[in-house]
Design a protein that fits this description.
Blueprint (H helix, E strand, L loop, with lengths): L16 E5 L3 E6 L17 H8 L3 E3 L8 E8 L1 H12 L4 E9 L6 E5 L2 E3 L7 E3 L8 E10 L5 E8 L6 H8 L13 H4 L7 E9 L6 E5 L5
């Protein structure tokens, strides 16, 4: 999709795409609108985990993406692989790159957001910047392009150095550039600019659980 063109609405009927599979791990491209793991109730049983496990019964969950976020999701095949990958994620040895379309034009070409985050308990699942109770959270961003449209917008590359819930969404909202289509953190006018959350996990670089060699995975951005 060319920058600035309207993205299509997500469909949970979109098949999940296997990007990489070996004896130790499976990486898929999760469509927007699909849960990473089952939710409560039979209507929320369909998810990336169940679809992957239908193909690879030994696949185990390692990390998650928000339902609205599309892109790379990795599963370990068997307990040893799941444990090794989980340790790599927890130890910040997994390098993540996201693409997003945001409201406004950042004044600089790149920046760093260092704002602690905590759950906004009365308004769950929302998260919030909390200088007292929040956990350290850091995001690096880089401006890629200004986008045409009814309101100023930009395409950003995002690198989270920590992995807090909703981190990218809250950090961008906090610096005045909420993600287009974000129903939790963007004002109504910005929500209405896209039929989905315009956030995509496009690249992961991680140590392979078999031998520690670096593996780079890529999921093309749909917007």
């Amino acid at each position: 999709m060319t920058p600035g063109s309207p993205p299509s609405a997500p469909s949970v009927d979109t098949p999940i795409t296997v990007l990489h599979a070996d004896d130790w791990l499976v990486a898929v491209d999760k469509p927007s609108g699909l849960l990473s793991v089952p939710g409560r109730g039979p209507d929320k049983a369909d998810c990336a985990a169940s679809r992957v496990q239908a193909l690879y019964p030994d696949a185990q969950v390692v990390h998650r993406l928000d339902m609205g976020t599309s892109g790379l999701l990795v599963f370990g095949r068997g307990p040893a692989a799941q444990r090794a990958l989980s340790i790599a994620f927890a130890g910040r040895r997994v390098h993540k790159l996201y693409l997003a379309q945001v409201a406004g034009h950042p004044a600089t070409a790149s920046g760093r957001v260092d704002l602690p985050l905590a759950c906004d308990w009365p308004n769950r699942p929302r998260q919030q910047v909390d200088a007292v109770h929040g956990k350290p959270s850091v995001t690096l961003w880089r401006r890629l392009a200004a986008l045409p449209g009814p309101l100023p917008a930009a395409r950003l590359a995002l690198r989270p150095l920590t992995g807090r819930s909703h981190q990218l969404r809250v950090h961008l909202q906090a610096i005045g550039h909420p993600i287009l289509g974000d129903e939790l953190y963007a004002p109504p006018g910005v929500q209405a600019l896209a039929p989905r959350l315009l956030l995509h996990a496009t690249r992961l670089r991680l140590p392979h659980p078999a031998d520690g060699r670096w593996l780079t995975l890529h999921a093309p951005c749909p917007f």
